Amino acid sequence: MFAWRRTAVRKRVVVNLADRAFDGVLWAKRGPLLVLRDARLLEPGREPVPVDGEVVVERARVEFVQVVPGGGG
Fold first, then answer.
1. Could you tell me the maximum CA-CA distance found in the chain, to the nearest angstrom?
2. Contact between 23 and 67 (Cβ < 8 Å)
3. pLDDT, position 4
4. How far apart, in whole angstroms, are the C-alpha atoms of residue 24 and residue 48?
5. Of 22, 1, 19, 10, the residue nearest 65 (C-alpha)
6. In whole angstroms, what is the distance from residue 30 CA to residue 40 CA?
7. Is the dihedral of CA 47, 12, 9, 15 positive or negative?
8. What single string gives the DSSP state of each residue in 24-50?
9. What structural domains and CATH numbers belong to the chain?
10. What is the pLDDT of residues 3-18, one digit of tens each?
11. pTM, whole model, 2 decimals?
12. What letter does residue 72 receive in the DSSP assignment?
């Protein structure tokens, strides 16, 4: 059921939330958190914005995760 969490680690993903999304490398899953590196903030109608450092997202806020084809790993 949760195989994507293992198979997507260290791959480029898009993490979709209700109001925005993040494109980045899923670096780790730590309890209820997902950690992204080399991330960009994606918002409707705007250009992607690079984010410094790591992005930490609560899994409970995630609507779905897309693995980007050819995105490393």
1. 34
2. no
3. 47
4. 11
5. 22
6. 20
7. positive
8. EEEEEEETTEEEEEEEEEE-TTS--EE
9. 3-67 (2.30.30.100)
10. 444 568 899 999 999 9
11. 0.84
12. -
